[in-house]
UniProtKB/TrEMBL annotation, chains A, B, C:
Residues 450-605 form the Beta-galactosidase trimerisation domain. It comes from the Bacteria. Residues 12-390 form the Glycoside hydrolase family 42 N-terminal domain. Keywords: Glycosidase, Hydrolase, Metal-binding, Zinc. Belongs to the glycosyl hydrolase 42 family. This is Beta-galactosidase. It comes from Actinomyces urogenitalis DSM 15434. Substrate binds at residues 109, 147, 320. One of its GO terms (molecular function) is metal ion binding.
Amino acid sequence: MTRHVDPGLGVCYYPEHWPSELWADDLDRMKEAGLATVRIAEFAWSLMEPTNGDFSSIGWFDDFLDLCAERSMRVIFGTPTATPPVWLQRAHPEILNADRSGQTYDGPRRNYNYNAPAYRYYADRVVEQIARHYGSHLAIVGWQIDNEINCEIDEFYSEGDHLAYREFLRAELGTLEEVNRALGLTFWSRQYSDWSQVRLSGRGLHDAVNPHSLLWEKRFFSHSAVRFARKQVEILRSHVPDSHFITTNGLFGNLNYTELMKAGLDFITFDSYPNFAFDVDRDLAADRLRDRRWSWSLTRTRSISRCFGIMEQQSGAHGWTSRMMGPAPKPGQMRLWTMQSVAHGADFVSYFRWRTAPMGTEIYWHGLNDYSNEPGRKMQEVTRIGQEWAALDDLWGADYQAQVAVVRTYDNVYDSELDTWHGRIERPSDDAVFAACQLSHTPLDFVYLDARSSLEDLERYRLLLVPHLAMMDEAMSELLRAFVEAGGTVVFGARTGYKDSNGLCPMRPMPGLVGQWAGVKVTDFTNLGQREEGLTATWDEQRLPVPVFSEVLEARADDVEVLARFDADYYAGEPALTRRTVGKGQVYYLGACFSEEMVRRLLTETGLVSPLAGLIEAPEGVELAVRRKGERQWLFVLNYQDEPQVLRLPTAYTDLLSGTSEQGEVEVEPYGVRVYAV
Amino acid sequence: MTRHVDPGLGVCYYPEHWPSELWADDLDRMKEAGLATVRIAEFAWSLMEPTNGDFSSIGWFDDFLDLCAERSMRVIFGTPTATPPVWLQRAHPEILNADRSGQTYDGPRRNYNYNAPAYRYYADRVVEQIARHYGSHLAIVGWQIDNEINCEIDEFYSEGDHLAYREFLRAELGTLEEVNRALGLTFWSRQYSDWSQVRLSGRGLHDAVNPHSLLWEKRFFSHSAVRFARKQVEILRSHVPDSHFITTNGLFGNLNYTELMKAGLDFITFDSYPNFAFDVDRDLAADRLRDRRWSWSLTRTRSISRCFGIMEQQSGAHGWTSRMMGPAPKPGQMRLWTMQSVAHGADFVSYFRWRTAPMGTEIYWHGLNDYSNEPGRKMQEVTRIGQEWAALDDLWGADYQAQVAVVRTYDNVYDSELDTWHGRIERPSDDAVFAACQLSHTPLDFVYLDARSSLEDLERYRLLLVPHLAMMDEAMSELLRAFVEAGGTVVFGARTGYKDSNGLCPMRPMPGLVGQWAGVKVTDFTNLGQREEGLTATWDEQRLPVPVFSEVLEARADDVEVLARFDADYYAGEPALTRRTVGKGQVYYLGACFSEEMVRRLLTETGLVSPLAGLIEAPEGVELAVRRKGERQWLFVLNYQDEPQVLRLPTAYTDLLSGTSEQGEVEVEPYGVRVYAV
Amino acid sequence: MTRHVDPGLGVCYYPEHWPSELWADDLDRMKEAGLATVRIAEFAWSLMEPTNGDFSSIGWFDDFLDLCAERSMRVIFGTPTATPPVWLQRAHPEILNADRSGQTYDGPRRNYNYNAPAYRYYADRVVEQIARHYGSHLAIVGWQIDNEINCEIDEFYSEGDHLAYREFLRAELGTLEEVNRALGLTFWSRQYSDWSQVRLSGRGLHDAVNPHSLLWEKRFFSHSAVRFARKQVEILRSHVPDSHFITTNGLFGNLNYTELMKAGLDFITFDSYPNFAFDVDRDLAADRLRDRRWSWSLTRTRSISRCFGIMEQQSGAHGWTSRMMGPAPKPGQMRLWTMQSVAHGADFVSYFRWRTAPMGTEIYWHGLNDYSNEPGRKMQEVTRIGQEWAALDDLWGADYQAQVAVVRTYDNVYDSELDTWHGRIERPSDDAVFAACQLSHTPLDFVYLDARSSLEDLERYRLLLVPHLAMMDEAMSELLRAFVEAGGTVVFGARTGYKDSNGLCPMRPMPGLVGQWAGVKVTDFTNLGQREEGLTATWDEQRLPVPVFSEVLEARADDVEVLARFDADYYAGEPALTRRTVGKGQVYYLGACFSEEMVRRLLTETGLVSPLAGLIEAPEGVELAVRRKGERQWLFVLNYQDEPQVLRLPTAYTDLLSGTSEQGEVEVEPYGVRVYAV
């Protein structure tokens, strides 16, 4: 059966942090504010199993759940495996994660590894006990697996991981000969001659590591986490009603969400904290997009589940006692950020948290209520959101509209993290694409491709930006070619296809397989240093920045147009950007990183820039987004600025939040939001 | 019996660093220069016990002491426990300190922990042997326990510390239930279910630590050091004459000096190195107060002993071979810094060191004599100080005069170190108070409160500044209220009283207990980010900076005056500073960090600014201080500048140092000093 | 027999990285390009001994060598000990190097230590097997020991090192008493009472270490590496023809090359990567000399072997996947850098590498050919170099001409690395000397002195710059005095001679022994902080910077001239620079660090500046160098700039590279080179 996210507002709550006398009042006030769902229990292992195998208090949350049921509050129950109890850690120190040098992490959270047999045994057992005990409780509607899988750390080097990695490689690659080949171990004499020698990378001098090993290690870290989650899903599914959904929360590293979803999750939820943009340690001047940058993460979230949830939506100042310090959100920002989530596809938004923790590392992760429990402006603001939420009733399930997508693969993401040459070109291009699309009001999606991807996955788009897929296999090249032949447009960036699926560099002209049908060859290439900053290429008399990396191109066929040529250095006048018509579509190849100006020009050239221009005129300071369901469309206007922004509406639209009709010149207040039915 | 610091000048000397043939000449030249006291032996364990239990050379210093006795040189003998010998370290590696990850420290100094049974056994034994052997030597007048307790590192995570911490918590908290409650271990599932699980914090991801545990750990580190010192005091007291004083040197972290004094110390001594202000790695431009900032530390020292000693007073360039590099003090600076110490309450000043070490890590910690042993300008300068010292004969025992004090508690100091939110507000307020008082010539004291404090401890003051006591219990609130009722003035800063004595945040309106009698409530609060820099509040048309943190206040009673209101942000116009009359006194509450301008305004408002204005007119570039004994007063003028400073004296005063009478406009030379009898 | 470096061009090649089908083609193309030598095998241990003791594939390179022999390609065979195989590392983890805290390094390269008995056994065995098998192959002309000894890390703290250090100290110092004395262990109670206590330094708090111990440890690290190399030389020599040369490559730390040469090397080779000057992480603006700075390293290389080889000469962009990112060299730079090497004494230049690695950490260390193996501009450039090389046929063996030398000793180099006070004066003076000589076209040599040095080693020079030899023993002082008496000039810089050969500071006036014959005494001294930046001294009305450190001098004899006096601070007017005639020569003493202006003035004063001015007029932007053989001279002109530089030739010279005659005003193109027969 397909289970969707339940639309609504919710809140994260920790009954164990206060006397039970407070619970009923807390729940009543949640209801009043429009918060109908409550997430609990994800850090409460030691309450339900205070010593090894003692499950006499497994029902610790029963009374609380009964109070919820009485009030028709819906409960999301978290499996508590993100914080193993101290008794387990002391009895089985091998459950602790370790760094590459073998030193273990202790400390209060996410200190475990996924491969210690003891951890897997105890985690499975407590999840099973919980599923058995709570599975049938009426208040519960769904489950959260663990909490923020791979948050804080996404690398695992405990002894259990070394052993599991060995088995993983054996299963994936079969023979030691293939391991030696695939991991390039001839280099520097690192071949294995016996399976017992296989281990994850150790601490190298100056952190030197074989990149192909590291690629496989990242795949292994993801695999371990996915297997860990899958096991919990299986246990839950065998005990809880079919109607209950199962999800997990947050987006983190070394984790392939395509695979994670296949482990049995019904949808993904994200934890959205845009206030990090204003943390006191962040250089505010360095990023004009600030909290708007969270739309990038929401776009990633949507690539996993078109409609999704926000399990933790920021509701106050944030910080730990040990680090991080964000100011209190300004009045209006919580509402703005809530609607930012909704605009991008969230149908469920749950605030973190009901009341600021009175103890522990997170006493500065402020909730809707402060320590004092006296109602203040945050409760007023959430109550307003609760009231407005009702006006969006028809919206749920509507789909975010984008014609342009960025193509990514997890392998390339991993590679750009482990390989600084790859990473240094990936990040500026990502920034350029995001800024160009945001500021020109051109909605954007991500598409994560893998071996199972098909043309269907791409059909909704007209333009695919493929910044720097260093690893590109034949299937992917052919898929993109088919997309073009069918009428689509693809833009490749520099360094496409110079690696194979292990990150080895095969003997063939760059840009590898796509070069053949894009009709280009790279004849020279270089990264740009400080001397070459400001390099441009000229396209029809427009000088466009081509930063960070240069590939000097050569057209391999007569029908390849050279659109832009480099303006300087020893390759001045050489081709920097080409275009070729292939079938009904077109393929561009850019021998550089993307700049914001270049992306804008490409959007213009392809006629896909600012698709909402007919619906609304809006300044760069606001974000626009559209969700559509059948014939109905909702147009979101999000003002991230602390100053009013002026829109121009060609015709009268009703703002669903206020219920008022607006037309012509409309001033949107600081942090203001509109949801127009259009 | 009460033992006071012996007034005089002294010097630190290491007989073991040179052939014994040099000793007599060195001592003769000390006497000549006016240095009558010599500290020895604090790093000489391996000379007195070269192998385990071999005390045949325990009398290694006998000959040297005899030479001292012949010349009536007074000797302070150091127990040598700061540098355990290598044989002990090799035989008992468990005596080494370890970091939070469990890795031990080796290395040349302060590498041990206070809780290894072996260390305690061997340290006690060598101290006992020393006390027995040297206790009755005529040359000795006093003892120094260890050396710079908690210098270099003040955290201890060896296995012995883990075990001792367990016993400490059991003694302090009694039951595991109370441990779990007091340390907030419900958060993130960290409850203990058996005493054997209790350990100090381990290495967490991103250094995350439970703050309440860390608070108790800091208390434990202090407790361990105090117990270690107490044991040495007990051993010494049972063997040395009653007349001998016992002290230790320096001010360091995680050490409660109130408790340390109760271990049996007669007074404290400080190690004063103001030349650190000019270290080549220090950003000179960042601190206009430079060497003058050492008056802050001298103020802390005075809070422990009204009259105290300087065991190590800088006499040359400083540095280790591995780090630190200070230039040679300019001519006059050694004299200036000596008088800075005296002005603040030092009756004894001992220079570090007689001659620069010819070997080891400290070959750049320059002494009065250089390697060459040829007399130079430093010996000339100290000889001048020795001659001037005689003119101060009546001064000793005179009390530093201050009407204003800053209130502190060790728990709050610890909390501000472990909790970045607390620390970030503490430091700028400290700086503002110090600068405002220094530059306005308003003498300042510190008062460290604890559960045993009484109104008597506060009676000498008219104004108490209480910047940010996050932890404030009922007793302290009541004590401060009594102070106000009796006619005093108290100024609280933001974040007062939001934590209990474990650092947990109770459910009550801020600012907690003092809010009731100060008549205020905090209705909203936020730290300030970069966007909010420059925030001010207006007090009678004067715009005063209110940096770092804002608490929006609400007056809770009619008799509460709102003195200043915020000028900007969403709480513009809301109260920032209130005042209320309580009994015969007044209480202010400032919903912000202190700025220098705010402190100056408060000092002016309370009529306590510049109390010496009638005695002298002085520019900001000099520091003024007064010590008083009975009817007699000594006025110190300290010129830290490399340019002359001009004073104006209303009447003729005699400068005791030069013996000349001065009146009217007086130019004080660069680095110059005056001690006027007034 | 004396074995010289074989003149010629070569290339580094890894047959194991590609199918054997490619080898013949690769070799043919090398020959075509003029690359007649090929280095192989230095990372191929696991191919030749895939499991413990299995030497059945010891002949892995036979076929390749046969292909070389057929083409008369000369082969340099590397012993593969820089990358021990994984089977060895797993079977004997004690072979791994460790840091000071005892944590081992794993990771792909140079992860071993020189003192583990197991490593020495296995390394010797594989070298012996290789020597036996390949020693008589016709293609082989020479051997490379290991690869880049002490590269990446030059400190070793494994258990094997601790034990070997103990034996080293026993051999060098004889008794524990002498160890305690020489290492200054009285300081901080660190005396040993039993040999079993002796270990290398452990991890100290704030990295504090006894500097004398560290000096001995550095000597020990060098000793260990030299012993390791010597053993390989011995094994090779007992199996390979006498005509084969033995060398090793690169210049690295904690390695005394004077001693290393005595281990039996025939000459040294350097690995020259000037493109690091343009790495994206390097602050370009911070160093105007950029790639020209590699002439400093080539000067060091020449001090070891007057004529030497370049085993690895940069041929493309550089980088690892984990760090480092250099742009592609501009057209012409590879040729420029090749000729920079030749100008300084290289007779053999081997490019790194034939083709970019298709796998491993170094996929971005680009070779002459890219992954694609399609010929490009780099192959064109090297082919041009190959053609020009023939015109230099008579040059080989010609000697670089310099009248000025900088005097160094390994002990002082070590001391300046371990002692920050020493290092902070060493580096700015080095920079000043280098810049002054480079920009004034004054060729420079280095002379490394030790106990075996004699006047002969100095006779070729007229001026010795002796910047800051803190450690100066009587023999060296007397040697330099003899040099002066014979007519030479010596300039000492500040801090000369304040340490003995253990780094202890003896009781004598500074500047120690040389002060007696230089006729000066240091009466006061200080490092300069930020307040004293810009200090100058005046010499005949010229104000010359005297940075970083000041020694106030006193002339000790009537015949000592005071040339310059300090202009500011409390020692304004005191002597800063003195000169004295001793025998037929002169000795200068500068009580400061060298500034570029001061070095230029000293070169002018001694008449040694710009000795080539009669041959050529050249701007600062180019480097000039002369090599001479008998009556013949070759004048090198190297243009490092990206702009043309104009020379003026007084008469017609033939540029050997182009075969054209030039005279008068000559424009040298960007990155251009001339080799004039003059």
